[in-house]
Structure of Ribulose-5-phosphate 4-epimerase/fuculose-1-phosphate aldolase:
Amino acid sequence: MPDDMKPIYQVNEYTPDPAVVFDRKVAATYVRYARMMVARGYVQSSLGGMAVRVPHPDHADGICYAKPQGISLEEMEEDDLVITDIPYGRVLHGDRATTVGHQMNREILRLRPDVNCVIHLHHDETIAFLAAGHEEIRSTSLTFSYLMQKPARYLPAHLNVEEDVGPIKTFIQDTNCIIMRRHGFTVLGRTVSEAYHRTNVLVSEVKRNVIVEMLSAVKGTTPEYLSTEDMEWMFKRGDAVVYPTLIRKESH
């Protein structure tokens, strides 16, 4: 069909697709990981969320399980989830609108076919650390680089890629973590588990930065952080250290 004849869809347009079946196993996984993030104190309101891509024969980019607006990850139940397509954000299952942040999630999934889960959180310590005048989160540990596998991308406070997704295409191939000043962070993963682990290691690194800066100020010492060169070396070897079984699986 020529481009000028393709239908124009609106975000959150209710377009139920009988070929899209609600998968209880996917929904249970979603709620399970939502509960784990809540238990760690990452969720404070109905803002933030998670998007999970699932392959579908009728949708080239797959379909996406997402949290609707007005409910938090803390309150989520399986039946609250909606399913959207990825290019347009049409609601294929469920009858509630998604959050504005789902535009960002969908654009990331569209541009990164290797990514199947996006987690976006308004994390207190991350926002506070950057608001205190720190320009970036430095690495104190080996685990951050091995798990994240790409450098974090920092966005200025005035740039809101939830509302305007246009800039995402300029940097998303080179990162698995977007840090948004005054806003929070967005973490990408090939699986829900990987996105969750990357979220945890990022939160841990923020906590370590706070502790290191405080203790160094008290002792009058200079904080010791890993160099950019060391981090780049570890980025390239993350799977070999953390996911050796994944390497073997992809090589077959």
Residues 10-243 form a domain with the L-fuculose-1-phosphate Aldolase fold (CATH 3.40.225.10). The CA atoms of residues 187 and 211 lie 23 Å apart. The chain has one domain: 10-243.
